[in-house]
Amino acid sequence: MTDASLSRRDILRSGTIAAGLGWLGFLDPTFTFAAQGDDEELVPFLNMPRSRPGILDWETLDSWLTPDDQVFSVSHYGNPKVDPDEYRLEITGLVDRPVSLTLDDIRAMPKVDQLMTLECAGNGASKGFMGAIYNSRWTGTPLAPLLKECGVKDEAIEAVFIGTDRKEETLRKGTKRETTFEVPFGRSLPVEDAMQPELLLAYERNGEPIRPENGAPLRLIVPGCYGIANVKWLKRIELRDRRYMGRYMARDYVTVRAERRGDEVEFVETSVLKMNLKSIVARVTRLPAVDGMVPVKAYGAVWNDGTPIERVEVRVDDGEWQPATIDAEPYSKYCWRFFSIDLGKLSPEKHTLVSRAIDADGRIQPTAEDDEIALKRTYWEAYQQWPREIDLSEA
């Protein structure tokens, strides 16, 4: 470290970092759908595969915070083994005072909780991939005060977050200009976004150390953004004066979508980042038939990038949209919210149910036939309405 470097002691003793940080209030519910009664019988969805291990099972979920055995894990450059005793986080690049921190240094900093739903950008792209989402209480230290203490230079435009995981990549494969090189996993954020108070350097999930496959010993938490932005096994934060164009910013996790411009259709590529407005009917229940008709309720979840949710509606078959009740609690800005609806008595036959969400900005969750989904050519950002089929003909 140079004379201009920020010492670990300076950081740990700094009053600036602690200023304005309050302990986040936290509800620790052990229930999922509060309106569901013990006498209600689960109605299985038709033509839907059962959830595999290591991913969310909507029909058996019984906790607002997702248990470990239903937490998905995705890695692109393998799962590196990081020794916590040897771990260092570097903050470097265009900063006045670069620093190298141990895990103990980070744990000694102001400690806060951040509640957040984390979703894979490909979740919902197929029937077999509907549970790549989970809700957590992350614990760590806020990123923004630390960056301020390091002194981000005016010319810095991006903060690049580099993981420990590495892999060889090949460009222009099969051509005379083919080149192969080893690179670490990385993602970036504009400096303004990196300085938002919600971002966290996290070392715990739900009160326990983060599991190795989920990014231990330290990962970035970016509320309201898809999982790909929440860099695991975080090794370095580098401030730069030019755009970072790593594979998972510029060539992969890129949504290709056609947009109508008058009579023309033009394809546009955008990097995956913020979570889109999305809801899903998670489970359906019934009571014994009354006069040949079946009392039915539906339960589900809704989430997005933190924009307030105005309402959720549910439709049966080709009927009218009906307002669902969104649970007032538990509630946190960046977490999923649960909803329920009493659908009354339905005929004992097959039915299709679907939900849609509307946010405070008037945005409506699209159908699969709407342009923003139908004209999309890539796997990511599968936030369309998802119809569910049930059969009430069997008692």
Domain count: the total is: 2
What series of H and E elements makes up the topology? HHEEEHEEHEEHEEEEHEEEEEEEEEHE
Q: What best-fitting shape do the alpha-carbon axes yield?
A: globular
- Span between termini: 72 Å
Class from helix and strand fractions:
mainly beta
Q: Which range does the strand content fall in?
A: 35-45%
Assign the CATH class of the largest domain. Alpha Beta
Across the major sheet, the strand order is 1-14-15-19-18
Helix content: under 10%
Can you give the mean pLDDT?
Answer: 91
H/I helix tally: 7
Query: What is the gyration radius calculated from CA atoms?
Result: 23 Å
Total number of strands:
21
Q: For the record, what is the CATH homologous superfamily label of the largest domain?
A: Oxidoreductase, molybdopterin-binding domain
Notable characteristics:
395 residues, Immunoglobulin-like, 2 domains, five-stranded antiparallel beta sheet, 7 helices, 21 strands, 9% helix, globular
Describe this structure in words.
The protein has 7 helices and 21 strands. The relative contact order is 0.16. The protein has 395 residues and is mainly beta. The strands form 5 sheets. It has a 5-stranded antiparallel β-sheet, with no helix packed on it. A 5-stranded mixed β-sheet has the order 3-2-11-6-7. The model is unreliable at 11-28 (pLDDT under 50). The protein has helices at residues 8-13, 15-18, 103-107, 143-150, 191-194, 247-251, 371-374, and strands at residues 41-43, 89-93, 99-101, 112-119, 133-142, 158-171, 179-190, 200-205, 208-209, 219-221, 234-240, 254-261, 264-271, 278-286, 294-303, 309-316, 322-323, 325-326, 337-346, 350-359, 388-391. The protein folds into 2 domains: 8-29 and 70-252, Alpha-Beta Complex (Sulfite Oxidase, Chain A, domain 2), CATH 3.90.420.10; 31-62 and 254-395, Immunoglobulin-like (Sandwich). It is globular and about 75 Å long. Strand 8 (200-205) and strand 9 form a beta hairpin.
